[in-house]
Design goal:
This protein is of the alpha/beta class and 345 residues long. The protein has 2 domains: 159 residues, Medium-chain alcohol dehydrogenases, catalytic domain (Quinone Oxidoreductase, Chain A, domain 1, Alpha-Beta Complex); 154 residues, Rossmann fold (3-Layer(aba) Sandwich). It is 25% helix and 26% strand. Strands 3, 4, 5, 6, 7, 14 and 15 form a 7-stranded mixed sheet that branches. Strands 10-9-8-11-12-13 form a 6-stranded parallel sheet, with helices on both faces. The chain has a two-stranded antiparallel sheet with strand order 1-2. The radius of gyration is 20 Å and the shape is globular. It binds NADP nicotinamide-adenine-dinucleotide phosphate. The site of NADP nicotinamide-adenine-dinucleotide phosphate has 29 residues, from helix 2, helix 3, helix 7 and helix 11.
Length: 345
């Protein structure tokens, strides 16, 4: 075990587009273990749009990071030392342990109640899959469609941010659940990939369409039963105009707005909420962290779908913790397809 480790700490809050100076890479000692604690070595760091929220001073569901704090982030790690009776060296965990090489934590906090999951990777599935298809973004798609969207077979499902980590899982799970699926993504290449590789029924390239609402109307002549929304803003407004009566809008996120956090005058104001009444719509936001106690049941089902090739995963991999800050803006520029991860060397 190393005595000194690298960590990214908060340097200043973000107020608009990321500048690449919000975080600072520092060296810190790896703390010694006390009774009840475990030492977790970070193997994979997940870069997520929520990182941008945590870098701002906006109200969030987690405590505000302070200057000098280690940047919050979801990791897959492995227990390297344990002074806790329930943890063995070699155990794998998903946890919000931050942008650092090692974390010393109380074993009692590594529970689903505290946003952590202990898991045993299936011997035939690469560990990488557990940060995307079989990780938080995959679970978000599963819970969003099943619990929030109440997706039925043959429903018309539209997914925004469809070529991103959560979106591509919502598209694939929609197909597994026998829905008719149309994804929205930026660019011909991504749209082609969604149709050719994921086998979805159609796609809309939001970057080239003149009128998003009309494109949706052409793709959904009978209206949209479930809209799985990762993007928000104008996309949500256009979707509202095309929802079927009794439709459900699953608010997974609103990535189009995150870079504007810090200047409220830049945030987009949705115009079509009156249609929620006339069309009898339900719109519901949710946080996957509230559903972690269900993962024991969800994960084996999803692992089997992956083994049966009913679903696939796609990660964009960046090597080295030192490259994490430089990689983060790629989430907002649409530069990558699938899940953006940092492999710790
Ligand atoms: N509710 C939860 O518990 C939960 C959990 C995880 C994630 N989420 C949410 O899920 C959403 C997607 O997260 P992710 O991890 O899948 O991110 P991701 O892999 O970065 O995918 C996001 C996609 O959004 C698209 N995008 C970015 N900015 C956009 C804009 N201004 N307008 C339209 N599209 C834009 C990009 O693709 P294009 O090239 O197509 O633009 C990108 O591929 C986020 O809103 C996130 O907050 C929610």
């Amino acid at each position: 075990m190393r005595e000194i480790q690298h960590c990214w700490v908060l340097n200043h809050y973000a107020s608009d587009k990321l500048r690449g100076t919000e975080l600072r890479l520092v060296k810190r000692p790896v703390p010694q273990l006390s009774k009840g604690q475990v030492l977790v070595k970070t193997l994979i760091l997940s870069l997520d749009p929520s990182n941008r929220i945590w870098l701002s001073e906006e109200e969030d569901y987690l405590p505000q990071l302070q200057i000098g704090d280690v940047m919050r982030g979801l990791i897959i790690g492995q227990v390297e030392q344990s002074c806790h009776p329930d943890f063995n060296v070699g155990d794998y965990v998903h946890a919000l342990l931050g942008w650092q090489e090692y974390a010393v934590v109380d074993g009692d906090t590594l529970t689903s109640m505290n946003g952590a999951i202990r898991f045993t990777p299936h011997p035939e599935i690469p560990l990488d899959a557990y940060v995307s298809a079989l990780g938080l973004t995959g679970w978000t798609a599963y819970v969003g469609l099943k619990e929030i969207g109440q997706l039925n077979p043959s429903d018309n499902l539209m997914v925004s941010g469809a070529a991103g980590a959560t979106g591509l899982m919502a598209c694939q799970l929609g197909k597994v659940m026998d829905a008719r699926v149309v994804g929205i993504a930026g660019g011909e290449e991504k749209c082609h990939w969604l149709e050719a590789n994921l086998g979805i029924d159609g796609s809309i390239d939001y970057k080239t369409t003149d009128n998003l609402s009309e494109s949706m109307a052409r793709a959904f002549p009978d209206g949209i039963d479930v809209f799985f929304d990762n993007v928000g803003g104008t996309m949500l407004d256009a979707a509202l105009e095309n929802m079927a009566i009794g439709g459900r809008i699953v608010v997974s996120g609103s990535i189009s707005q995150y870079q504007k956090l810090g200047d409220r005058s830049q945030l987009y104001g949705v115009q079509n909420t009156h249609l929620m009444v006339t069309r009898r719509l339900r719109m519901e936001g949710y946080l996957i962290l509230d559903y972690l106690d269900q993962i024991d049941k969800i994960l084996p089902e999803m692992e089997q779908w992956l083994l049966d090739k009913k679903i696939q995963y796609k990660n964009t991999e960046v090597i080295g913790l030192q490259n994490a800050q430089k990689a983060l803006p790629r989430l907002f520029s649409g530069q990558n397809t699938g899940k953006l991860i940092i492999k710790i060397e």
